[in-house]
Design a protein that fits this description.
7% strand, mainly alpha, globular, single chain, Arc Repressor Mutant, subunit A
């Protein structure tokens, strides 16, 4: 378990919501609807989490409707946080 990455997620309530919402492959609008966050917050957070290796975009060439999923690190973090 990477404790620095766990701490990174726990320090941000929006990051925590996005990680918990990624229980399957999803597009940003699905995450937005589930979490009741603004589009810009979801997009920014996904980019942050991707930079940290917690989520990955599996359709990077799509202009809209990119699909995101948790990495193995992200799955471990999700198991260690509670709602």
């Amino acid at each position: 378990m990477n404790l620095q990455k766990l701490s990174f997620v726990l320090r941000g309530s929006i990051r925590k919501k996005v990680v918990l919402a990624l229980d399957s492959k999803k597009i940003p609008s699905q995450i937005k609807d589930e979490t009741k966050l603004e589009d810009s917050n979801v997009s920014r957070t996904l980019k942050e989490l991707e930079r940290e290796g917690i989520v990955r975009c599996i359709t990077p060439n799509e202009k809209t409707g990119r699909i995101y999923e948790l990495t193995k690190v992200g799955e471990e973090i999700k198991k260690n946080i509670s709602k």
